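User: My advisor, Dr. K., asked me to get a structural model of this assembly before our group meeting. I'm new to this, so sorry if the format is off. These are the inputs:
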Amino acid sequence: MKVQVINPNTSQSMTASIGRAARAAAGPDTQVIACCPDDGPESIEGHFDEAIAAVGVLEEVRKGVAAGYDAHIIACFGDPGLLAARELARGPVIGIAEAAFHVASLLCTRFAVVTTLTRTRIIAEHLLRNYGMAEHCTSVRCVDIAVLELETLGDDALVERIAEQALQARDHEGAGAIVLGCGGMADLPARVSERVGLPVIDGVAAAVKLAQVLVEMGLGTSKHGDLAYPLAKRFSGRFGHFGG
Amino acid sequence: MKVQVINPNTSQSMTASIGRAARAAAGPDTQVIACCPDDGPESIEGHFDEAIAAVGVLEEVRKGVAAGYDAHIIACFGDPGLLAARELARGPVIGIAEAAFHVASLLCTRFAVVTTLTRTRIIAEHLLRNYGMAEHCTSVRCVDIAVLELETLGDDALVERIAEQALQARDHEGAGAIVLGCGGMADLPARVSERVGLPVIDGVAAAVKLAQVLVEMGLGTSKHGDLAYPLAKRFSGRFGHFGG
Amino acid sequence: MKVQVINPNTSQSMTASIGRAARAAAGPDTQVIACCPDDGPESIEGHFDEAIAAVGVLEEVRKGVAAGYDAHIIACFGDPGLLAARELARGPVIGIAEAAFHVASLLCTRFAVVTTLTRTRIIAEHLLRNYGMAEHCTSVRCVDIAVLELETLGDDALVERIAEQALQARDHEGAGAIVLGCGGMADLPARVSERVGLPVIDGVAAAVKLAQVLVEMGLGTSKHGDLAYPLAKRFSGRFGHFGG
Amino acid sequence: MKVQVINPNTSQSMTASIGRAARAAAGPDTQVIACCPDDGPESIEGHFDEAIAAVGVLEEVRKGVAAGYDAHIIACFGDPGLLAARELARGPVIGIAEAAFHVASLLCTRFAVVTTLTRTRIIAEHLLRNYGMAEHCTSVRCVDIAVLELETLGDDALVERIAEQALQARDHEGAGAIVLGCGGMADLPARVSERVGLPVIDGVAAAVKLAQVLVEMGLGTSKHGDLAYPLAKRFSGRFGHFGG
Amino acid sequence: MKVQVINPNTSQSMTASIGRAARAAAGPDTQVIACCPDDGPESIEGHFDEAIAAVGVLEEVRKGVAAGYDAHIIACFGDPGLLAARELARGPVIGIAEAAFHVASLLCTRFAVVTTLTRTRIIAEHLLRNYGMAEHCTSVRCVDIAVLELETLGDDALVERIAEQALQARDHEGAGAIVLGCGGMADLPARVSERVGLPVIDGVAAAVKLAQVLVEMGLGTSKHGDLAYPLAKRFSGRFGHFGG
Amino acid sequence: MKVQVINPNTSQSMTASIGRAARAAAGPDTQVIACCPDDGPESIEGHFDEAIAAVGVLEEVRKGVAAGYDAHIIACFGDPGLLAARELARGPVIGIAEAAFHVASLLCTRFAVVTTLTRTRIIAEHLLRNYGMAEHCTSVRCVDIAVLELETLGDDALVERIAEQALQARDHEGAGAIVLGCGGMADLPARVSERVGLPVIDGVAAAVKLAQVLVEMGLGTSKHGDLAYPLAKRFSGRFGHFGG
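Assistant: The format is fine. Below is the predicted structure of the whole assembly, which you can bring to the meeting.
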C-alpha cells in the first residue's frame, strides 16, 4: 500500500518530521510518500495561508492519483482543501484534524485540543462544528508559539507548554484525552501523554492508520454526488492544467 | 465609493452580467469595478472548482486593496475564499450567499434557495449552517442546469425552471421568499418575483448594498483576531508574491 | 424615502437621541420620522415592559403604514413586536438587535454584545438563538446601568463602562467586534470603537441602513404565509380599532 | 387551591369550553376561575393577534394575583405573554403549549402536533425550539380550520379532520402521541385518542394539572433574575395603571 | 392510585428515605410502594453502575406491572433503564432527572443542577441534551461527596455544600432555580431553598407528582412504535424469565 | 493482537457470522475471539432487549479483560453498554454503529443507514445525535425484517431489500454511502455496494479495524474521569461478582 502524506506548507524540515511520524505509524508494509507543494506558504497560520496552501494540496493529490497512490493525507490541522481533494481521488483522503477528532472520540466522552496560535483557534472550532465534534470537545487551547518556532523552541520546552494547557483542560474541564493541533507536534504524543496521564492523539499517525483501514476494507471516496470527479471544464492561466 | 465586484470564475460574459446587476444596485454615486481572475475555472460547480477559484478571488482582492477600493464582493454563491479575503482587506468583504441569506431573513421567517446543480446543493447547505441560517431555510432546490448553460437556455426558460421550484417551496414548505443561488441569475429576481408572488433576492445586488452600508457607517473588517492581516512569511513558487 | 424610527419606550429624550442617530445614518435623501408610543413604559427592562411596549410599537407601525412610510425601525434592543409588526406592513420592518447582529457577523467571526442590565441579558440571548446568531457571539455582557440612567451618567463614564466589558470580550474571548445592546447607546459607537480598537455597531444606524437597502432593492416584508396581513376579525374594548 | 385559566381571546363560548375542560381536569378540590380579557381579538391566528392578546393576558394575571389566585394558565397554544406574565406572579404561570409538550415527551420518544391554520404553524415551531422540544416532535400539522369555525364545524367533523392528520403522523413519521394545538380543541382528546389509538394531549388539562403539582410542591416562579417582579417605573396613557 | 417508586440501587436506607419523600409528595390518596432491586450495586456512580442497575429497575417494573401499579418512578438521577422500562408498562414511567428538569423549566429561564460526584456530571449532561434541556441549564455542579456518604455527612453539612454550589450558579451564571441531582438529596429541597432564596426541585417529588397527573389524565406510555411491549423472544440463562 | 468481538445477543449462528466478518477484516496477525453472552435475548430489537443485553456485554468484556484481550467490539448496531464497558477496560472498546458512522463520514458528506425494523430506527437516530453524526446522515431506513429472519430470508432477497432502500437514499436524498445497520448484515457490504454503486460500510469490519488502529497506536480508553475503572462497591445477588 502506498500512502501519500502531504504537508500543505513548504517547510522541508516539517515535511521530514511529518514523514517520520507517518512512517512510524504506517509500519513496514506500507510505503509512505511524504511531500509538500512546490508553491505556497512556509507555514499555515490563518484563513489566507490555508486558502493558498489548498491549491498546493490539490496539485499534490493530483500527482499522487497519477502515481497510483492508494490514499492521501492532508497533514495540516485545518484540513485545507479536504472536500476538493476528495473530488480528485477515488482512494480515501483524510485530514489530520478529522482523524484526530474521530480517534479521540473513541477514547473518552470529552477531549481537548492544544494547538499553536490563538489566531487559528477559530479554524479548529469551525472544523469541530463541521465534523459534528463540537459537543465532544471541552476547549481548543493555544500555546501561542508560531508554527516555525516549534522546532527552534526545542521539544522539552514545547512539551512543557503543551502539558500546561492539557492539564488545565484535564483538571478544570474534565477532558479525558488531548488532541495535538498541529502537524509540527507529530513527534510529541508519547511525551505529552507521559506528562499529563491522558491518551494523546497526533493527527498524522491517526490519519495514516485510518487511511490504511479504509484501503484494506476496500473503501474509498464516494464517487456519487458532490465528491464525484470534478466536472470537465476550461481552466485558464496558471491553472490551465486542471482543465479537461 | 468604489466597490470591487469579483466574479470568481473566468467567464467574461458572466462577469459582464454580474457587473450590470451590481451597477444597477449600486446607483450613480458608487463606482462598481467588475472583474474576474485571469487564472481559474470558467464556472464553479463543486468543491474543487471553488478551491481553485478562491486563489483568483484573493489575487483580485489584493489588487483591489492596492487600488484603494472601499469594499469587495465575492460574486459566486459558494462565497469562495471569504474569510481568507477578509484577512487581506480593511474594507468590508461580502459574499453573495451570505448577503442574500441575511437579507432574506429580514423579509420572512423561512426562505428557500433555488440554485443550479444538485451536485452543489451541499455547498449552500454548509453555508447556511456556517452562517447560522439553516433553521431559516426550508430547502435548497436545484434546477439542474450547468452554470454556463444558464445563458444559452434563455431567460424565459430559466425563469420558468426557477419558478417551478420556487412555487414548490412556497406551497409545500411555507417559504416566504426565494434566494437565487447563482451569480448567473443576477438579472432575474424581478421576473421570478412577478411569477411566484414572493420577494426574490439576488445576492449580487444584496452584497453591493450591504457593502455600501458598511462603508457609509465607517465599518470594515475587524483587524483584531483571526481576520487581522496575514502574518508575514515566505511564500514560494507561483505564490511568491504573497510573501512579505 | 421615509423611514419611521420607533422608540418603543415613551422617553422623549431617548426618542430624540435615537432620531439624531437615525438621521446621521440615513443621510440627506431619506426623511427620518422618529416617534414613540403615547402609551407604555418609559424604559424597557424586562419581558413585561417589552410585552406592553409591543402594543405601542404596533400602534406606531399602523400609523406609519397609513402615512405611507416606506420602512419601519423598532429601536429597542429586544426587537419587541417584530414579527407582529411585519404582519402590518408591506415595507420592511427591522429591529435594531437583528440589524446589529447581521452587520456584526459581516465584520468578524465572533462578536460580543454589551448591554445595560444583567436582568435583560436573557432577552439578547434568546434573540441570538432565534436569529441563528448564537454561535457568532462570544457573550452578552452588561454594564448594569438602568436605561434611564444612561443619560444622567454622562457619556464619558458610560463609554468607560462599556469599554471595560468590551476589552474583556476582546482579550479573553476573542471577540472581533462589539454590538451596543441598547437604543440609548446610539451616540457612542465611534467613541467606544476608538477606545477598544474594534468595530462597534449601533443597531439604530444599522437598522436604518438595512431598511434603506431593502427599499432601494424593491424588497419588502413577504405577504405570503405567516407575515401576511392579519386576518380580519373583531377586536374589543381598547383594541377595537385593530378589528376589521 | 384557586387556579386562574385565562383564555387570551375574547370569545365567551371558547372561554366557557376551556373552563369546562379545566374544571374536569382540576377535580373537586380546586377552584377554577376561567376568564378572558375585556379587550383584544376574538381569536388568535398570527403574531399580531398574539401581541395584542398578550396585554389582555397580563391584565388578567394582574387581577388574578390581586385576587390571591395560586396559579395562572395561559390557554392559547402560542403561550402569548408567558415570560412577561411570570414576572407578575409568584405563583406558577403555565402555557398550554409548553404543558402539552412536556407531558407528551413523558409518553413517547416523538410526538406530533395537530393545530388549526397553516399560517400559525411557525408559532408552534418557534415554541418547540424555544422549549427544547424540536427534536421530540415529528411535525406540526394543520387542519386549516379557522379558530372560530372549530365550533360551527361540529365535533364529529373536527375529530375526523384531526384524526386524518394524526394518522399520517403516526404511520409515516412514527409519532407516538398527539398534541392538540389549540385551546378550542380542549373537549376532544378522548375522542381523537379512541380514533387514532395513541395518547392525545390537550394542553388545557395538562397545564391545569402541572399548575396544581407546582402549587402542591410549594414551588412558584423564581423571583430571582429575569422573572423577578417588573422594575417599578412610569407607564403612560392607557397603560398608566401598570406603573409603580 | 398506586405509584411504584424504584430506588435503582440496593441501599435500604436510601430506599426508605426516597419512600418518605415520595409519600410526602403523593399525599394521602395515593399509595406509594417504595422498593429497590434485590440484585445490583449499592450506589450508582458511573455508567457501569447504571447499566447493571437498569436490570434491577426492569425487574421491579415488571413486578410492579404484574401487581397492577398505576405508575412507576425511577428514582436515580441518571434515569437508568427509562426507555426500556417504558416498553414494559402501559402506565407512565418517569425518571427523577427528567421530572426535575421539566418542572424547573416551568419556573425560570435557566436552572442549575447540583449533583454528587464530578465523575457523574457527564451523565446529567447527556440527559439534558437527550431531553432537550441543555440550553435551559447553566451548569451541572458537583459537591464531590460519594452517594453513600451523603447520609453520614449529616444534613447540615450537606445543605451547606449544596448551597455553596447553588449560590455560585445563582450569582455568577444567572440560575433561577436549583435541581438536586441525586435521589439521596430528596429530603433537602426546603432547607436548600431557604438557604439560597431560589426554588429548589427534588426529582423524587417531581416525578411522583407528574406520574399522578398522567394517571389522572388517563394518559400512559404510548404502546405504538418503539415503546410498544417488547417483541416476544427467547431469553436465556439468568434472564430466561424475560422471554415470552 | 487479540480482539474480542462480542455479539450482544445469544444467537450462535449470528455470533459465528459476525466472527467470520471480523476475522476477514482483522487479517492473519490478529486473533479474533468471537463470543456472546450466556444469558440474554436471542435478538435485540428495542430498548428493553438492549438494556438486558448490556449486562451480557459487560460480563463478556470483564472476561475479555481478565483474559488479556487488547480490544473489545460490541457487535450490535445499538452499541449497548458502550460507555459502561469502557469503564471496565484499559484497551479500546468500540461499538459497530459508532465505527460505521465514523468511517462513513470519511467517504462522503452525507450517508444513509439501512437497518432492520422501523421500531429500532429511534435507537440509530439517538446514536447519530449522541455521536455528533446527525447532520451527516440523510435518513435511517428500514427493511422491516426481524433480526432472526435475516438468515432465513436468504442473502439474495436481503440484498435486494437493502438495495431498494439504499437507492432511494442515493437518488432522492443525495446519500453518498450506505451504513448497514445490523450485525446480522456483516456478510453483505460487497454485494450491496455492487448493486447500488456506493461505498457500503459494515460496522463489524469497521470496528475491528478501528480497534486494531488504536492498539497499534498505543491508545486505549481514557482512565481519567468518567471512564475510569468503576468505583469499588458492594453488588448484591446475581451481580455480586461485580463488587470489589
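One thing worth pointing out at the meeting: The longest strand of chain F covers residues 137-142.

User: Perfect, thanks a lot.
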